[in-house]
């Protein structure tokens, strides 16, 4: 898979996650956030498990103990990101949640520099700032008084950044995207349902009333999109992945406008154009630089 194809895979994952915001919001009319997170990732784990087993057979060995520990660490970051996002949706809008969650576009390259001493391509920094500006305009060009849900969405962005950074590292080290996906889903599901069993009431009516949202988010937004994420990240860097994945804010606002009648302000359309310009910038500049360097090397 080329880097361009990998980034398009990440863009598809972002579009799926954008639709997932709507399902995540409407589901909580009848079910609590921890049970919703637990059930969605339990379904995702079961959906990916057969493919993870096929991957293990193809590689002729199960993941090592060290790889499992790494996958569990990714699952812990996923659990923290998913639960803070889901609880935050109780007291903030889908548009605000998608905007604030996308702050990981800044956190990811910072984490990469601090932890791995790995500096991204220079274009990532202006691209990240353009993404933030675009997302800011998409939200109306003004941030009103922050609610508890908004604060949780900011915390969520930090944990998503950790999950993106760790997933990119460990999928490249292990070459097991499906085993990583299945393990992180299972860890997240078990932890969320344990907490849900203690603090949230649950009954069959609640599950039945939100089954459509649970199945969509479990099979498509979790099972498919997170697998696309770890597959795409095998062929691109974490900072570039963050740029493409953060476009979920654009898709989240779009789907919220269509299905929840949340409005996109006039400035939002300018924001959309800036977001797509940032995506093109991050995609094209490294490719053009690589080709120019290749020509220079060939002429020497």
TrEMBL record:
Q: Does the keyword Cell membrane apply?
A: yes
> One Pfam family from the UniProt entry?
EamA
Does the keyword field hold Transmembrane helix?
A: yes
Question: What are the protein's UniProt keywords?
Answer: Cell membrane, Membrane, Transmembrane, Transmembrane helix
Broad class of where this protein is predominantly found: membrane
Q: Can you give the residue ranges of the EamA domain?
A: 7-139, 148-282
Q: Which cellular components does GO assign to this protein? A: plasma membrane
| Membrane topology according to the record | Multi-pass membrane protein
Tell me the compartments it is located in.
Cell membrane
TM ranges are 33-54, 66-85, 97-115, 122-139, 151-171, 178-199, 205-228, 240-260, 266-285
Please give the name of this protein: MFS transporter
Q: Which organism is it from?
A: Agrobacterium bohemicum
Q: What is the lineage of its organism?
A: Bacteria, Pseudomonadati, Pseudomonadota, Alphaproteobacteria, Hyphomicrobiales
């Amino acid at each position: 898979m080329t880097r361009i194809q990998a980034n398009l895979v990440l863009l598809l994952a972002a579009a799926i996650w954008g639709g997932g915001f709507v399902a995540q919001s409407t589901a909580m009319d009848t079910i609590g956030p921890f049970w919703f997170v637990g059930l969605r990732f339990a379904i995702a784990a079961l959906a990916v498990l057969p493919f993870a087993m096929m991957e293990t057979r193809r590689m002729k060995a199960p993941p090592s103990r060290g790889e499992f520990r790494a996958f569990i660490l990714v699952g812990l970051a996923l659990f923290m990101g998913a639960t803070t996002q889901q609880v935050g949706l109780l007291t903030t809008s889908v548009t605000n949640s998608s905007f604030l969650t996308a702050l990981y576009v800044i956190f990811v390259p910072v984490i990469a520099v601090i932890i791995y001493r790995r500096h991204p391509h220079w274009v990532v920094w202006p691209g990240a700032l353009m993404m933030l500006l675009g997302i800011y305009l998409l939200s109306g060009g003004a941030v009103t008084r922050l609610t508890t849900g908004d604060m949780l969405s900011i915390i969520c962005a930090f944990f998503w950044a950790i999950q993106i950074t760790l997933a990119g590292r460990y999928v490249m080290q292990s070459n097991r995207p499906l085993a990583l996906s299945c393990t992180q889903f299972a860890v997240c599901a078990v932890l969320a349902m344990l907490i849900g069993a203690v603090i949230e009431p649950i009954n069959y009516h609640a599950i039945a009333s939100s089954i459509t949202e649970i199945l969509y988010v479990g099979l498509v937004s979790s099972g498919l999109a997170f697998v696309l994420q770890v597959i795409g990240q095998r062929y691109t860097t974490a900072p570039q992945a963050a740029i493409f994945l953060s476009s979920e804010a654009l898709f989240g606002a779009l789907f919220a406008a269509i299905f929840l009648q949340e409005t996109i302000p006039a400035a939002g359309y300018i924001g959309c154009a800036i977001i797509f310009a940032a995506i093109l910038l991050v995609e094209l500049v490294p490719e053009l630089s690589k080709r120019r360097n290749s020509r220079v090397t060939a002429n020497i």
